[in-house]
Amino acid sequence: MKKALAILLALALTLSFAACGGPSSASSTPAPASSTSAAPASSTPADEPSGDPVALTFWYWADNTDQSNLIQQIVKDFNESNDKNITVTAEEYPWDSGGFTDSTFNAIMGGGGPDMSTMKLQAGKTFAANGLYADMSSYVDAWEDKAQIGDNVWEMMRNATGDGKTSILPWTLEALYVYYRPSYFEKAEVEVPTTFEEFLTAIEKCTMDMDGDGKTEYGFGMRGAGGGQEHLGNFLYPYGATWDDLTTPEAVEAYKAYLSIYQNGYAPETAPSAAFAELTDGFKTGLTAMIIHHIGSYAQWVDLFGDDVDAFPVPGSDKGQWTCAGDTELVVYEQCENKDAAFEFYKYMTVGEGGTTWFKNTGKGLGTSNVKETEEFKSNKFQAVAAEALKSAGVLPPTDTLTEFINNVWAPTNQQALMGQITPEEALETMNKALHG
């Protein structure tokens, strides 16, 4: 057992994350971020609280100072409004390229750490294997608002731990979808695609000289390098393939369709080396008609293009549909002595006022009723697309070797395949081995 625990701890120290995966660095004992070091929120309940006082600690990371301040305010509001005498102390720690996860793991293994925290699905198996998560299945099953969150999302949570338990609670998922230029579609005489075959046709037809300057604009902004692994799944599932085995005939057919976009000249020449910056620069300058991204970039496209930008979910087929989702979830740890109170806080952060406030200020959520009722949702056409895309969303398989696949295998292997230096079968064999061993 000690040897197994040591192995699992070593794995935890090498985990890494991005939107659906990225680099990680480990640290031992976490130190609060200096700019937003948290103090216990004051508690002045609006109504007389019932029951004995309950104190909970909640660790989180934030993308910026404004987001951290928002979480602190949401927690303060919860403390003041709940009638169960619950006081949550929210403490911010830096994400540190995934170091937050390692630090939380080490703190709990050492006998400290929080009652609850934010978490990414890719850490699920390591924490679950060490018995650190509380099994919240009974709470979720009895929750009257459970159905507001899609079945595919709950399945995603269960799959992340590998034990069939609902130990990770969904909070924020940002599904990828397609941004496109309506003026390009009009000139190419194509409609918004509703099937994957129509999507490929639109990519082909939108590759043309759009403005008469003698230069070609391309139908699709391909992210062939860093982060592009997230888009591969958009191609796999419509052909009947999955992430479980990238060497099947269906996966080979899907990958050939993906490669053909570049090899037929429907994506920019720089596609094999393109990461996020190149992807967005191509769309920004009008070089590409379509790119795959999430809700986080809609504002810059509206500012730049006005009405000449729209979106649609990446289509599927009768064989399947899938899109990647960046995630930030909430977890309750087994060491938490009052899991009832912890679940009350979770409900507040999703279908409660906390979830509403979070969405209004960040645009992030799960498409629950309280979110859809806001003016911020109703007036933003991209939010409706994001909510629709969430129905087919998932994450890359949380294997122990996912970091290696993302950081060291995907880009060079995919680049070689795009350039015709290796066959699709050889590329997929390499990727599959990196993912599954």
Provide key terms for this protein.
disordered N terminus; 437 residues; three-stranded antiparallel sheet; 11% strand; alpha/beta; D-Maltodextrin-Binding Protein, domain 2; single chain; 2 domains; six-stranded mixed sheet
How would you describe this protein?
The strands form 2 sheets. Strands 1, 2, 3, 4, 8 and 9 form a 6-stranded mixed β-sheet that branches. The radius of gyration is 22 Å and the shape is globular. Helix 2 links the parallel strand 1 and strand 2. It is α/β, with parallel strands linked by helices. It has 2 domains: 2-174 and 327-380, 3-Layer(aba) Sandwich (D-Maltodextrin-Binding Protein, domain 2); 177-313 and 399-436, Periplasmic binding protein-like II (D-Maltodextrin-Binding Protein, domain 2, 3-Layer(aba) Sandwich). The two termini are 23 Å apart. It has helices at residues 2-12, 65-81, 99-109, 124-129, 137-141, 151-161, 182-188, 196-205, 229-236, 249-263, 276-284, 298-305, 339-350, 353-362, 369-372, 375-378, 381-390, 402-418, 424-436; strands spanning 54-60, 86-92, 116-119, 168-175, 177-180, 290-293, 310-312, 323-332, 393-394. The protein is 43% helix and 11% strand. Residues 1-30 and 34-47 have low confidence and may be disordered. The protein contains 19 helices and 9 strands.
Low-confidence runs (pLDDT<50, min 5 residues)?
1-30, 34-47
**CATH superfamily label of the largest domain:** Periplasmic binding protein-like II
Output the radius of gyration.
Answer: 22 Å
Largest sheet: 6 strands, mixed
Described by the principal axes of the CA atoms, the overall outline is: globular
Structural class: alpha/beta
Question: Number of domains in the coordinates?
Answer: 2
In quaternary terms, these chains amount to single chain
CATH class categorisation of the largest domain: Alpha Beta
- Terminal CA distance reads 23 Å
Q: How helix-rich are the residues, as a percent range?
A: 40-55%
Total strands: 9
